[in-house]
């Protein structure tokens, strides 16, 4: 596992981070999004989907639907498992999509059932900060560490620019 912590992330920076992850997602089908209510999980999904030609205005929280499907350059499954009570419900809802082996799954509250999903994943933990900022801890489980390398370069450039 490789990881990076990025602090005091604004909405504009969250959009840039979502773009970096989307551009380098090859090899991963699962992106876990964990954090408190209102921290920016669905906003991240909007930014991520935009990179695949999906109108961000079409992206909404699947809290009650459980799964929203967006069709663009890639098929995106936006899943919110907050309301589920056991892994069998999750299996029943996602069985066909996961077996189909197409698309990318962005799963809010994935920490509730981590044993259900593939070991190869991108995991993003979002934490509230003062103002409209958040801290992100991004973990990569799998072979492709390019996402972390690019995020490190982006974060270092951001820190350098703030010192100028």
UniProtKB/TrEMBL annotation:
GO biological process entries: tRNA threonylcarbamoyladenosine modification
Keywords, comma-separated and alphabetical: ATP-binding, Cytoplasm, Magnesium, Metal-binding, Nucleotide-binding, tRNA processing
SUPFAM superfamilies tied to this protein: P-loop containing nucleoside triphosphate hydrolases
InterPro entries reported in the protein's UniProt record: P-loop_NTPase, T6A_TsaE
An example Gene Ontology molecular-function term: ATP binding
Primary subcellular site in the record, as a coarse category: cytoplasm
A Pfam match: TsaE
An annotated GO cellular component: cytoplasm
Protein localization: Cytoplasm
Top-rank taxon, per record: Bacteria
UniProt cross-references to Gene3D superfamilies, sorted A to Z: P-loop containing nucleotide triphosphate hydrolases
RNA-binding in keyword set: no
Family: Belongs to the TsaE family.
Annotated protein name in UniProt: tRNA threonylcarbamoyladenosine biosynthesis protein TsaE
């Amino acid at each position: 596992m490789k990881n990076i912590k990025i602090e005091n992330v604004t909405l504009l920076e969250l959009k840039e981070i979502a773009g970096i992850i989307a551009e380098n997602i090859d090899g991963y089908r699962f992106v876990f999004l964990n954090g408190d209510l209102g921290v920016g999980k669905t906003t991240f999904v909007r930014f991520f989907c935009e990179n695949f030609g999906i109108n961000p205005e079409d992206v909404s929280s699947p809290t009650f639907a459980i799964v929203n499907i967006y069709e663009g350059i890639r098929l995106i499954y936006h899943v919110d498992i907050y309301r589920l009570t056991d892994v069998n419900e999750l299996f029943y809802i996602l069985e066909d999509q996961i077996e189909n082996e197409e698309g990318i799954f962005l799963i809010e509250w994935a920490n509730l059932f981590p044993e259900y999903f593939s070991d190869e994943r991108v995991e993003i933990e979002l934490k509230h900060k003062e103002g409209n900022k958040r801290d992100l801890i991004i973990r990569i489980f799998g072979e492709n560490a390019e996402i972390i390398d690019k995020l490190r370069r982006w974060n270092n450039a951001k820190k350098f620019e703030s010192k100028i």
